[in-house]
Amino acid sequence: MKYFYQLLLILSIHFLVLGEDGLENQILNLPDFISAASQNSHFEEILAEELTLLYGEKLKISPGNFILDISSEYSFKYDDTFFHGLGGSIQLSKLFSYTGTTLTGNYSITPVLSTPVTAVIENSTTPNGINFNNNLSSKIQFTLEQAIVKNAFGRIYRVEKNIAGLESEVIRLQIIEAYEDYLASLIKIYVDWFTTYSNLENARQNLTEKNLLLKSIQNKQQYSIASAADVRKTELEVMSAEEKLIQYEHDFIIQTYSIRQLIGKPEHLTNFIPSLDLKFVEVGDMEEAYHHFTQASRLVKIFKLNNQADELNQKILINHLLPEVALETAYSFSGDDLDFKDNLTHEFSAGINASFNIPQPGWLYSLKESKQNLENEKLSQKNDLLQYEDDFFQLYQNLVYEQKMVTSMDKKLNLSNQVVEDEEKSYNQGNSTLNNLLSTYNSRSTYRINQVIHGANYFNYYINWLKLNDLLINNEKQVPEELKK
After folding, report:
1. Which is more confident, 124 or 359?
2. Tally of domains in the chain
3. Which of 93, 97, 104, 181 would give a disulfide with 157, using CB separation of 3.0 to 4.6 Å?
């Protein structure tokens, strides 16, 4: 059968009745609960993770650096001449990451000794007859360097950019999964709350029925129709029903407090109560759903994206093993003093630079390890998909089972109402014992509880089915329309 019970929501949002403690009983339906709970800090934490995606991809890419290099020195030299002077350089380089090209501009000044002199000159005006020389030469050079082997033409930059994009997409999908996981946990909390409330209502009904039965037995005792033992037995049943009621009231108070904390309304101005209704829904074919899961689910997309990123990382590892080879061309002009006023010279040059890594023991281990890790990861993913096939089968069968059990409990409950009526007539006519009558009462109470339990189980399985099929929340982190009704 393809039709199963789905716990949906009643249309009324603010249906108010008066509770036993004088406070208003306000029905809190699932959409309102989810909406209120989604404003809490946990959802904000998930949102904060999402905001990092705005920056993460940029941060993971090697930037096209500007590098400013400044140096200076003061030189002294004394042989036949006392020579001193200030020299230095300023250099600015820019890496164009997308093409692997580096452009460098350099300006330098150098103190030079340009005129032969003797150590001691007669009639010199310098101290102690020492000759001073402070000539300068200046040079401006522009260099263009292009990588052609390691990071050839910016290839690794583009690989890193692709990896960053893949990793960002994985994080985005994982954030959606986090939203979905938290939403599923919220729904389960609500269903548990609803289950406890339903058991509480059943306990109240059971206690009312037992009290009516006790009153009836006591009346019969006055006319010697019922014995004192019958009264005592019924009183024990009433006490047991009261204990059950106390237990469910305790559980409901605790769970309601948790609900209040989740929706941010800890004040006790109203008594929130849940309400869910049962309707049919088609969940589709299990094999078709699993086939779609293996082709287009978020989990499979994450697997594929991670594999692509690992394969690209291997290209980076291979790049580390390549020699650094670059074509270089340069133009410079130089002259005397700071303003190139004399001896202006122009120079053009072109060449190739290369440096090679000398192979060391284990130099290929990182690459081999990366390839093996990728194969291991693919094998692990394959095993995970096989496990998910088992999950699909079990979950589908659990849905079928719980749907059948809910139907069975409905039938049993209807029959038990008739059996109770029949047994009451038989007891009143003296054709049955009190034990038989109490047994029918207890059986009916059990069927009521089981009806709620199996209905709640079905709903939880159905939520897991939606979650497993990426249907509980879409890529815009919105819940499906059927959960909003």
Report:
1. 359
2. 2
3. 97
